[in-house]
Amino acid sequence: MPKRVTAVLSAALLAVALTACGDDGGESSPSITVWTEENLTDRMAVQNAIISEFTQKTGIKVKLVGVAEDQFSQTLTAAAAAGDLPDVIGALPLAAVREMEANDLLDTETPAQVVDRLGRDTFSPRALELDSSGGTLLAVPSDGWAQLILYRKDLFSRAGLEPPDTYERLEAAAAKLNTGGVAGITLAIAPKDSFTAQSFEHIAQANGCQLVDNSGNVTLDSPQCVQAFAFYAKLARDYSVKGKQDVDSTRANYFAGKAAMTIWSSFILDELAGLRKDAPPNCQECRSDPEWLAENTGVVTALKGPGGSAPAQYGEIVSWAITRDAAKDPSATFVAYMMNEGYERWIGMAPEGKFPTRQGFADQWNKLPAGVDAKKPLADVYPADVLDTLRESPDTFARWGIPQGQGKLVGATMGELPVPKALSAVADGSLTPQAAAAQAKAEVESIKRGIRE
User: Fold this and answer.
1) Which CATH number fits domain 146-313+396-452: 3.40.605.10, 3.40.190.10, 3.30.70.20, 3.40.50.450?
2) Comparing 8-12, 53-57, 139-143, which segment has the lowest mean pLDDT?
3) What residues have CB less than 8 Å from 8, skipping those under 6 apart?
4) Hey, what's the signal peptide range on this chain (predicted)?
5) CA distance 199 to 202
6) How confident is the model at residue 452 (pLDDT cuts 50, 70, 90)?
7) The pLDDT value given to residue 453
8) Helix-helix angle 3-21:110-118, to 10 degrees
9) Distances in Å between the alpha carbon of 7 and those of 1, 12, 332, 336, 438?
10) For residues 300 and 443, what is the distance between their CA atoms, to the nearest angstrom?
11) pTM score
């Protein structure tokens, strides 16, 4: 990172810390409570190490509490009712930020101050946009993971195919490569799998299909959405591995060399490189070279459909939120530290799923070791152009309902999964795309009414 930024921030940290501690030495050291959804044991250890250093430098004590993502809403509601909110919450998904906004639990002034202190121009503009409501920054975007289209570069090259970055190219490749015991694509279509919802949203966003409009009206029956239902279902029905493919089987099929393409999250990158024993690539060529599949895999981030105005992709931004009752100065100092001095170690916990939302960390991210059973920098496996594409992907992230302030609805639909259910019915021929879109719309409207009640 630029030395000037580090120096300015360090001075600011010191000033805030001295102010918080008082001048006469008689006041106790300030302290804050921080919740984190990065609650795995090894990641808690990393965060506690950063916190220890932070406390030594600033005098601000931090109590770190791990909170499971699937328990967050319940835990937050109980804490708010008891008047016992934490000061800061880390690794918070976009929908959860909007849930806190809807319940008036956020400090909506301090995040912008932190970003301005660090340098607004060092943040991904799209990440800031996704974390904003009506021009107000709700939280500080920390990092992100991306939904990707992975494709076999060797098969594409032999067939003279272009990278599958449009609907037309994706379908053409799936059709041409669906031969010789290899499926054109392996695509999630299981109706009870949230991964199907994420994969479809990736395809749908590319075509300009939105869950709701700016007034909150459900728009899943729009022409763009009907076309997306039809396109996705055709890929699954005509060119994918047979059966109700899900998050595990799509990865397994691609790793076995049984499919020329798949849609998966960036968390696949370390597994693809043979760095996890529980999910190793096992294609024929992989047996003698565990990195063969990674070296022969191309990556497409943003996709463009005929109904879309610009390429887009599904991605998740996680953020640092400061609560309405927080000790503001110590909380701001802590978040700024985690986004600067502690940032390399933060994104280093899982670089394949923590693309930096701040510029100036490209070289560090490339060199961060990824993997579980074995570790290796992503730059040792993937070419520079792939890493550049991945690292820049937060700038093309698009999400249903988030810009329209419908985070609660987004979370609820991921619980009940009306879209995967309708999508699966199109793939098996029991519903037309139009009927599936209408069914999904009706079910989402019902979920929305339940939220209001």
Assistant:
1) 3.40.190.10
2) 8-12
3) none
4) 1-22
5) 5
6) confident
7) 63
8) 140
9) 11, 9, 17, 13, 56
10) 32
11) 0.90
